[in-house]
Each structure stands twice: as C-alpha cells, then as structure tokens.
Task: structure prediction
Amino acid sequence: MFKSRIDPKKFETLIEITNLINSNYTDVRVLLTEILESATRLVGGEASSLLLVDQGSNKLYFEIALGSKGTDVKKFSLNMGEGIAGWVAEHNTPLLVADVDKDPRFFADISKKIRFPTTSILAVPMRVNDRCVGVIELVNKKDGGTFTQEDLEWAEIFSTQAAITLQNARSFQKARDEIGRLRDQVAGGGGFHSFIGSSRVIQEKLEIVRRVAAADSTVLLLGESGVGKELFAEQIHLHSRRRDKPFIRVSCAALPEALLESELFGHVKGAFTDAGGARLGRFSLADGGTIFLDEIGELPLSLQSKLLRVLQSRTFEKVGSSETVTVDARIVAATNRDIEKAVAAGTFRSDLYYRLNVLPLLIPPLRERTEDIGELARFFLERFNRETNKQIRGFSDEAMEAMHAYSWPGNVRELENAVERAVVMARGDSIAVEDLLLPGLGGGSSDVFSGKPLREALNLFKKRFLTATLQKHRWNQTAAARELGIQRTYLTKLIKDLEIFR
Result:
C-alpha cells in the first residue's frame, strides 16, 4: 500500500480523525460527517455520500450527503445491488469507475433527477465483522481528473474509520436506550422535557403544533419569557417526520457575536485566534433534524443575512472557508421581543422576519391558563422531592389559592423556581403559603416581614435566602458562595452572624 511517499497533510488528517474517534465516539453523526468531509477533501471529490444498509428492508439510505445537491440526494434510496453503491454493498467489494457511461452498473436516475452530471465514481464498503454495513461513495474528481488507486486506498482507510465509529455507537446504543427508557419512566426525559398542560387553551395550541409539525415550514414561537417556548419547539420536532433525527438547541443571546457565528455555522482550522481545529456548527449537527433558535430577536444584524441565506437556500459557509455547505434542517425560532418594533427600529431585518414568520404561534402566559397551575406545581413538587430527598405530600389549600391568585410575571419558569424554593424551605409534610415567598400576596411572604423594623426584616430575608441556597447545594459553602456571587469567607461570616444552623 502507498508505493509513493505519503502526503504529510493527508496523514495529519488521518491522525485527527483517529483522535476524534477515540475521544468522542458517541456523537456518531458528527464523526461520520467529519470522516466523509475528510475523505472527500483528500481524494479531491466534488461530492460524496455515506449510505447505510437497512438490514430489515435490504435497502441503502443516504445518511450523509455532501456537495451542492446533498439535500436532494438524501431524498433517495437504493435497493441492494442497485447502482454502483448497491453493487459495492451486495458484493462487499470496492469499485473504481472512471467512466460511468460505459459501466452498466451505474444507476443514472438519481443523477438526472437532481441535475448533477456524474462522470466518475469511487465507492468502498464499510465493514463490521466482515459484513458490509454501509458504503462511502465519492463522485467526480475535481478539475476533470480521474480517481486513482491511491485515492481508493485512502477511501478504504476512511471507510474503516467510519465503520469503527458506527460499531462504537451501536455498542452503546442498547445501554443508551435502556437509560433513556428509565429516564422517561422517572422524569419524562430522554433529552426532552415533560410537557405538562391540560387547559383548553394549551390543548388548542398543541393541536396547531400537530398540524404544523407535518410540514417543514419555519415556525416562529412568540410569547413572554418563561412560558415554555422551548417545550413547544420540542413538541413540533417530536410530532414531525424528523423525530428520529437531531434536535439542536441554540440560544442566540448566550454567546458574543464572534463566537455565535462559529457556534451556528462552524469554522475551519485556523479561522481565527484559538481555532486550533475545525469544528461543525449547530446547523451541520442538525442536518436531517430540527434546529431551535431561541431568543432569535437578539441575533446580531451581521449574522441575520447569513441566517436569511440558510432559510432561502439551505446553504452557508463555515467561518474561514469559501466552500459552500448544504444542510437540511427545519428551523424553529422563538422570541419574547416585539419583532415588528425591532424591524421598525432597524435592528431586525424585515426580509428575515417575513421568512421566519411563515407559521407564527403565540404561547399564552400562565396567568391566562390558570387551570395548569396546580398540575404544574405538583409536577415540580415531585421532581424536587426526588432531588432533595424529601417526602412533601402536597400544598396547603392556602398555598394553592395563593398560587392561583398570583400573576406569575415570570410564567412557568417562575412557578418552577417558587416550588423549588418552597421545597427547600418547608418544615412540615406539606408546603405552606409562607414557604412560597411570593411577593404581594395576603397571607404570603409579605406578611412574614410586616410589622418588623427594617434591619430585622432584612436579616430575616437574608437568613431565609442563604439557608435556601445552602440547602440547594447540600451545604457546600464554596458552591453556594459561587452562586451568590460573594466570597466564601464572607458567606461563612454571614452564617455565623445570622445564626444559620444546618
């Protein structure tokens, strides 16, 4: 193998991929994409695909497809033995075809339908225990050249890496499935939140979700902070045909502009300071699935044009690269801002807003669906009972009445925080109204401080607040001080001065 001298750059790429497999082989889709991108680049292909064999149907499906027609290619499948890739899978043998027009095994239908002229193909099997589980197919040598025997040898190395990645992932799949099943039983998990809400207005919104989920159109979720827009985004994904593909979350307000562009679109090695290695962006990770862009109203103007292009053509370039990447990801965006005002103010592009606003869905605040308060509160109580190892049975009638009377400006998120705080504060076997510490409610936390001098009321509040934080962190003063934003030594002094006992 490799009678000529090995190209150092190719060897370096091979080492990088091997290190990735050894360090993070559970993220199978990311690694397979990295492997296919590297193989395509090193052999100089114009386009490429990674097909996996479905043992049940005996078909080959395009799991990953790179190139200008990648999204179109993924709509097709092949029967075993059909086309070059099907022949390679059936015979478990690599194949180099210099002129596809002269080879009867070439299946021209896909090339014609997607309008991508194909001249040459290099295809190699991915083997697990000597059985073909997939095929890597490289199409058209760049600059009109032809694939060589050395190209085939490199492709076989990368197909071996892909097979190792796939085998590693499948080895973990049974354990992950079992963990996911148990998590679902315990907390409605599996990576998604439990959806709680049986009020009429919420059920009406869920019916709309089921209808819009069937399409691939962009959805814009609107509503106040804390109403649960992310949960609705999850429901859209879970009711769609993409439910078995990735659901990728991005907060557009969580990162500075320079890092957000790389986070969304990825970057190539050396694209900027500290960019030691290439990385895939969130859009690439969401290929085939759904990407949730939370707080889209905070997206900088400089990135809005790039997002608009993704919405229009499903293409973009990584930071530091001129190579076009094609992605098939459904976009669900969310904001608590008045986007129309932002458009009028010139801080949000009108053309992007119209592209995002194809299917708008307004999520009502908690004060407009008070029927859900009791159900949500009991759900949070059960969760925080488990986390704190307590056995609080429920809420007093006064506490439940207080929760229904309160306006919840922070919506479901505020209710969740209030129940967590109450679980920590409660001394009995049920949550009393004073445990909720809700402002402005008769019989609530305001009565605890009424009639007291200012200094005494402040000390009482500090004592309760610090106690709740310490209990949350299992009395770890370092962790509690970090959350409070104070020095540990100062926290120790407060504990002593306020006579806080464990």
Summary: Residues 422 and 435 are 5 Å apart (CA to CA).
